[in-house]
Specification:
Layout lengths: L2 H15 L3 H17 L1 H4 L3 H13 L13 H11 L7 H12 L11 H4 L3 H19 L8 E8 L3 E8 L4 H9 L2 H7 L2 E8 L1
Length: 198
């Protein structure tokens, strides 16, 4: 896929439907930091990184079609699947939609038809990407961009995430801990958070 064309297209889609672009762009940034710093564990490629960036930018577009937002994660996936993409192949769209869908609520499960229809390798890719997106989203819980940088340290039994913050980010850390459930399963390590005001 052409990275520049794909980015231009998914950013355009984001700006059409997203009411809080600062939040989703920040979530994408934090998720990509995790992707880059945990590469030795997930071993995903540049196309996967672009899918994660797109999922970060589009994970909340479902608010535009889901009154009250309760099912907005599913609405985001539906809107992504229904778009007539020019720069993304159908297999990439399927991964993007599911990564966005699993940014909250239930974890990927074979009971979910769209997840079950993927091959095993694609299911593993979705799980890894969604795991990173869930943490990135948790780290901007209040949509205030309090967490500005992440420094990861991979250890045999845990992954230590040291956060640089511009405000006291207790709610963000609590949300990220809660949403590290999938990452703990995927990477077989506990996620431990510390923070430093700068």
């Amino acid at each position: 896929m052409n990275e520049a064309e794909a980015r231009q297209e998914f950013l355009g889609f984001m700006y059409e439907l997203e009411s809080e672009p600062e939040h989703v762009l920040h979530v994408a940034k934090l998720s990509l930091q995790l992707f880059d710093q945990l590469k030795e564990l997930h071993q995903l490629n540049a196309n996967d990184r672009l899918i994660l960036e797109a999922a970060g930018c589009l994970h909340d577009i479902g608010w535009s079609a889901s009154p009250g937002g309760r099912e907005h994660h599913k609405a985001s996936a539906r809107l992504i699947r229904e778009r007539a993409w020019k720069s993304l192949a159908p297999d990439a769209v399927a991964l993007l939609a599911l990564t966005a869908r699993y940014h909250r609520q239930s974890l990927p499960d074979l009971k979910h038809r769209d997840f079950r229809m993927l091959g095993k390798q694609e299911r593993n890719r979705v799980q890894s990407l969604a795991a990173l997106l869930r943490i990135g989203d948790g780290l901007d819980r209040r949509h205030m961009q309090y967490v500005i940088d992440i420094k990861s340290a991979i250890q045999p039994d845990k992954i230590a995430l040291h956060l640089l913050t511009r405000q006291f980010a207790d709610r963000e850390i609590e949300a990220a801990k809660r949403k590290s459930d999938l990452a703990t399963l995927v990477f077989e390590r506990e996620f431990v958070f510390t923070a430093e005001l700068i």
